């Protein structure tokens, strides 16, 4: 009698269904978490992580809510982006 084949995943790799996530899937999930963190930082800048605030500052050119948030805290004049 033989034992059934058992699949062992590497530690630290989250499962995507029944298989480990690929590197591109993990990176995509990280980008989505970063975007969500930056969006959640709008209006709650005092409690937001630095990474989210820096991402928000990087989006100032494209986003009116991000520009309003950064301008309200004087970030644009400090970074030279207000001109």
Overview of this structure, please?
- This protein is mostly helical.
- The protein has one domain.
- Helices cover 51% and strands 5% of the residues.
- It has a two-stranded antiparallel ribbon.
- A hairpin with a 2-residue loop joins strand 1 and strand 2.
- Helix 1 packs across helix 2.
- The radius of gyration is 20 Å and the shape is rod-shaped.
- The mean pLDDT is 75.
Task: Provide a short characterization of the protein structure.
The protein has 83 residues and is mainly alpha-helical. It has helices at residues 23-41, 50-58, 64-72, 75-79; strands spanning 15-16, 19-20.
**Main sheet?**
2 strands, antiparallel
Radius of gyration, CA atoms, in whole angstroms: 20 Å
Summarize the amount of helix as a percent range.
40-55%
Terminal Cα separation, in Å? 77 Å
Identify the notable features of this structure and list them briefly.
rod-shaped; single chain; two-stranded antiparallel sheet; mainly alpha; about 50% helix; 2 strands; about 5% strand; about 80 residues
Summarize the helices and strands and which ones pair or pack.
Blueprint: E1 15-16, E2 19-20, H1 23-41, H2 50-58, H3 64-72, H4 75-79
Antiparallel strand pairs: 1-2
């Amino acid at each position: 009698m033989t034992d059934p084949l058992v699949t062992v995943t590497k530690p630290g790799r989250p499962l995507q269904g029944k298989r480990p996530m690929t590197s591109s899937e993990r990176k995509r999930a990280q980008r989505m978490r970063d975007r969500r963190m930056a969006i959640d930082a709008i209006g709650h800048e005092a409690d937001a992580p630095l990474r989210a605030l820096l991402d928000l500052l990087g989006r100032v050119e494209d986003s009116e809510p991000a520009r309003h948030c950064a301008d309200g805290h004087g970030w644009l004049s400090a970074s030279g982006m207000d001109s």
